[in-house]
Design goal:
The chain starts with a strand and ends with a helix. Strands 2-1-3 form a three-stranded antiparallel sheet, sandwiched between helices. The protein has helices at 27-37, 58-68, and strands spanning 2-9, 15-22, 44-51. It has 72 residues and is an alpha+beta fold. Helix content is 31%, strand content 33%. The chain has two helices and three strands; from the N terminus they run ββαβα.
């Protein structure tokens, strides 16, 4: 499981930041999935990916997002 942060341009050409969690076998697959989800590398300014454990409690997820949340 991977946590990601992405800085990207949306369909209205507005710069935005989002974060989320996805499942992948390795970092390369995780990065590829983020790029696909955000409609290609031409729309992405930067990506941060961090590997998380396979099983997480709700508290661990909340703490993880608080620790690594996208900052302006």
């Amino acid at each position: 499981m991977f946590y990601y942060q992405v800085d990207f341009y949306d369909s209205d050409c507005e710069r935005r930041q989002e974060s989320g969690v996805l499942c992948a076998k390795h970092y390369g697959e995780a990065a590829h999935r983020v790029v696909d989800y955000y409609h290609g590398s031409q729309n992405i300014v930067s990506i941060y990916i961090e590997e998380w454990m396979d099983i997480l409690t709700e508290d661990e997820v909340i703490k993880g997002f608080e620790k690594a949340d996208v900052k302006d």
